[in-house]
Amino acid sequence: MEQKKIILDVDTGSDDAIAIMLALSSPELDVKAITVTWGNRPVENCVENTLRVVELMNSDVPVYKGCPEAMVRYMNEEFISSCTIVEDGVEYSLHPAYLDLPEATKKAEKKNAVSFIIDYLMNAEEKITFITVGPPTNLGMALRAAPEIKENIEEVVFMGGAINKGNAAPVSEANFYHDPEAAKIIIDSGVKCRIIGLNATHSAELNLDDAKVFDEINTPQTRLAASLLRSRVDVFRRLKQGNGYSDAIHDALAVACVIDPTVITEIHKMRCDIDLGRGLAYGQLVADCRYGNEPDENTKTSVALKADKDKFFKMLCERLG
Ligand code: RIB
Ligand code: CA
Predict the structure, then answer these.
(1) 110-115 contacts, C-beta under 8 A, 24 or more apart
(2) Which of 165, 251, 284 is the best mutation target for the ligand 1 pocket, counting ligand atoms within 8 Å of the beta carbon and taking the most?
(3) For 85, phi and psi rounded to 5 degrees?
(4) Is the CB of 9 under 6 A from ligand 1?
């Protein structure tokens, strides 16, 4: 089997952790590096959480610390607080400051993630698939500094964006909302982009019965996935933003579709842009579907709208099991 060479860019994060476990346990992928960005938490927390998961996977994949802030806007504190609730003195967070895993003994590489991305892509023998499941600041900065690196990018697969309904803001999804300028730089670069947004991730939500199946498989990886899934469902219930039974494991779906594209059941080529106005729609993924603006051979962006939950869950059970 021809392995796909990937760089995985994360802001670990509860669903990022499941995405990392899926990527590192799939023979179809050759994970060259994991680069870490700010987002769900400050970048230092995201690095520590990433290292803890990499150690759980007994992997020697190098981890690079990246940008602590977006290219333009400042760290969006209210987003973190909006994913955290304190009840009876107990903090419940969608993305814990530190994952409930042993403190990492492994260290991040000395080189900054942006420098690594530029150096690696400038010298790559083969093209890379770049999977970004946090604010896309690291790749945005790298492309700004060295646009020629796009020649060695096979495809960018985003967990990001949404058509119509957002999460961090009314029509904006968190990753694109956190760094819309970076997302726009990447989309405008002309590199092929597959955008796995909320429409697709919420069509393949995992639920509390799936968490029981993870428990029955009973590996360290499935036990972690079960606990992260349960805590996500619980936090959204407490925030009165969830149904108390299921939730989207967004980032893992972006990895899953690189392993098996058929996990996405509806995807369309669309002319895409990102709203950079500082109004209500800041960070919105705008897909132009008007007559006369149909996609053509120059359209490099596709947007996923639906996924196959059973296929996705089966893949997670097999790989994490
Ligand atoms: O909107 C979902 C995205 O925001 C996921 O990547 C999650 O980890 C958060 O970063
Ligand atoms: Ca993420």
Answers:
(1) 111/64, 112/64, 112/65, 112/66, 113/9, 113/35, 113/36, 113/37, 113/64, 113/65, 113/66, 113/67, 113/138, 114/66, 114/67, 114/138, 114/141, 114/142, 114/145
(2) 251
(3) -135, 140
(4) no
> Could you give the CA distance from residue 203 to residue 264 in angstroms, rounded to a whole number?
10
Please report the atom of ligand 1 found closest to the CA of residue 198.
Answer: 1
**Ligand 1 pocket residue status of 172, Cβ below 6 Å:** no
Q: pTM, whole model, 2 decimals?
A: 0.97
Does the annotation count 250 as an active-site position? yes
**The token pair that represents 203 in the structure block:** 């069509």
| Other beta carbons less than 10 A from residue 91's beta carbon | 10
**Ligand 1 pocket, residue 155 CB under 6 Å:** no
Q: Which of 95, 178, 202, 250 is catalytic?
A: 250
pLDDT at residue 197, as a whole number: 98
Residue corresponding to tokens 């060295």: 146
Q: 133: Cβ below 6 Å to ligand 1?
A: yes
Helices (H), the chain: 14-24, 43-56, 77-82, 113-123, 137-145, 174-178, 180-188, 198-201, 208-217, 220-238, 250-259, 309-320
CA distance 128 to 5: 5
pLDDT tens digits along 146-172: 999 999 999 999 999 999 999 999 999
Where does residue 143 rank: exposed (0-12), middle (13-18), buried (19+ CB within 10 A)? buried
Q: In whole angstroms, how large is the CA radius of gyration of the chain?
A: 18
- Rounded to whole angstroms, the Cα distance separating 205 from 309 reads 7
4-320 — its CATH code? 3.90.245.10
pLDDT given for residue 73 in this prediction = 80
